[in-house]
Design a protein that fits this description.
zinc, 1 helix, binds zinc ion, single chain, little secondary structure, two-stranded antiparallel sheet
């Protein structure tokens, strides 16, 4: 009889590689409606344009979180 570990769900304690957008919805990095933060070490890196209130992709774009840690 197999031991049932089903239903035991670990919380994500491990260091995550990179997140995908603040909305936590699926993000296709090759899609046209996504943008990448240019700042190295950005926690999130990838965002939907809509989620960061952009209509087009700036050439060098930094996300809000990075702007804050840059000090303006
Ligand atoms: Zn999003
Ligand atoms: Zn960033």
């Amino acid at each position: 009889m197999p031991l049932s570990w089903l239903g035991v769900k670990h919380k994500a304690i491990e260091v995550q590689d990179q997140g995908d957008c603040i909305c936590e919805e699926e993000l296709d990095r090759s899609a046209d409606n996504v943008i990448k933060c240019r700042r190295p070490g950005c926690e999130m890196q990838w965002y939907h344009l809509a989620c960061v209130k952009l209509q087009q992709k700036p050439h060098n774009w930094t996300c809000e979180a990075c702007k804050k840690s840059d000090g303006g």
